């Protein structure tokens, strides 16, 4: 009879611990990185009796109730949650975050709540340092494992190159345009894309790419940066161009990208001491539509400037000497 009370009491104790495990799981439902526990019940054998009947042994085991032999963590993948905090991390699949305390003791955790301390080191809520490898400018692992540091200030990264890989979703049925590009007139281009670029001081600037459908499978691309023309480079070509000519094949893939309109803006300087300049000729020197300025200095250093301005079609519309109209 007394054994029966002990057996029942053992079962109550085991189930009380099982309920404690469940309560702990519920209490940590919002704890980041928490893994639920499962209680493992085991049978408690109080006695084992062997008797013989008809010369054959008969075993009788009398249970003494149950107990919680162990608990097991459930490492199944939990739900990922977006916190909008850049330093919060999550593991999708197997693995742990490696952290170290100030004494250098290493721990492993699934909790990805991190923040930066005053030195810019990533730490968890207990002040332990997240461990990892640093990357160089090319994204390669460098150095040995250690603290992950995020500098509080970084040098601005100047935009040095804009790569034209897929211009935009250009519509092949867009109307052909023969007008000269005028960015203030939307009828002189088909599309415009705005891009933010940065200078060496980290100041942002707006660049615009204008797409003009000139022929059935050809598009001209012009660019402005802060309302100033952009010069383009083509791989394998040392020249700079005022625009690009993008040609597509019959299935809408880019067939070629060529430079259009070589940029030959240049300054030529000749110093002739104590001599008559006479006639000066620019030989084989193409000039972009716009203007040409030639400045001549006398022996005393007095400048004489000749300005030539055309209309973009080879017609001179203004020619003056020190702002005096010639001819």
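^ Assign residues to that structure.
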């Amino acid at each position: 009879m007394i054994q029966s009370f002990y057996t029942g009491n053992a079962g109550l104790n085991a189930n009380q611990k099982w309920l404690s495990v469940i309560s702990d799981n519920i209490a940590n439902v919002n704890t980041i990185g928490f893994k639920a526990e499962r209680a493992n019940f085991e049978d408690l054998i109080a006695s084992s009796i062997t008797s013989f009947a008809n010369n054959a042994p008969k075993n009788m085991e009398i249970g003494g109730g149950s107990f919680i032999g162990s608990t097991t963590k459930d490492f199944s993948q939990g739900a990922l949650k977006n916190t909008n905090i850049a330093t919060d991390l999550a593991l999708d699949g197997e693995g742990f975050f490696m952290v170290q305390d100030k004494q250098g003791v290493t721990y492993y955790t699934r909790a990805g709540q991190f923040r930066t301390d005053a030195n810019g080191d990533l730490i968890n809520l207990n002040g332990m340092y997240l461990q990892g490898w640093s990357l160089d400018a090319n994204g390669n692992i460098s150095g040995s494992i250690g603290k992950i540091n995020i500098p509080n200030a970084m040098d601005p990264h100047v935009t040095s190159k804009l790569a034209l890989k897929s211009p935009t979703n250009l519509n092949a049925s867009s109307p052909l345009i023969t007008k000269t590009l005028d960015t203030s007139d939307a009828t002189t281009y088909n599309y415009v894309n705005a891009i933010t670029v940065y200078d060496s001081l980290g100041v942002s600037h707006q660049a615009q790419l204008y797409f003009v459908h000139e022929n059935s499978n050809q598009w001209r691309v012009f660019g402005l940066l802060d309302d100033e023309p952009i010069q383009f480079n083509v791989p394998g070509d040392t020249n700079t161009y005022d625009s690009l000519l993008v040609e597509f094949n019959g299935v809408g893939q880019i067939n070629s990208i060529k430079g259009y309109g070589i940029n030959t803006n240049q300054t030529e300087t000749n110093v002739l001491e104590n001599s008559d300049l006479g006639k000066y000729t620019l030989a084989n020197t193409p000039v972009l539509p716009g203007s040409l300025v030639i400045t001549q200095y006398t022996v005393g250093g007095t400048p004489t400037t000749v300005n030539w301005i055309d209309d973009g079609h080879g017609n001179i519309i203004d020619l003056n000497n020190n702002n005096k109209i010639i001819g």
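The chain has four domains: 2-73, 79-154, 186-262, 265-327.
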